[in-house]
Amino acid sequence: MSAGGTCNSTYLVVQEFVQEHDPWCCDDPMGTLSVSLPLQDGYGSVSSPASAQNCNGGGLYPNCGTFGATIRVAYNCSTYVPPPPETNTCRGYCYGVPPDSTCSCEVGCYSRGDCCYDYQEQCCDPYPQWNGCLQ
Description:
Elements: E1 10-19, E2 29-39, E3 42-55, E4 64-77, H1 109-112, H2 119-124
Antiparallel strand pairs: 1-2, 3-4
C-alpha cells in the first residue's frame, strides 16, 4: 500500500474471510473477521483481536458460535517528499531565464558571462553556430 502524506493517525482496515474445512462433514463459510488497525510513521507491527458469530446448519441456536483470531500486520510506513525543482539549470529553459535563478540560458549569455552551468549541454548541442554558443 502506498499513500501520500503522513502515516500518523491513518488506519488500515483488514478483512479476513474464514471458511471451515472439515473432511468429515462440510466446507462451510464461517464469516469475515474485520479489524481497523492504527498506523504510525516508521515501521512496526500492530495487532487486534477480531471475532464474529457463526451459525452453520440453519443459523439457529444452539448451532451458533463465536470464532475469532488475532490479526497482526507488519508495516513500513514512510512519506515520500519529492525534491525541490532544480534551480540555476537550463533544463527546460533554453533561450530564457530559469525561475529563481541567478544565471541565464539566453543567447548571448557567454558574452555577458552569466550562463548557467549546463547551458552548453542543454542549449547548444548539436548546432552551436545557430544559437549563439560559439565562444
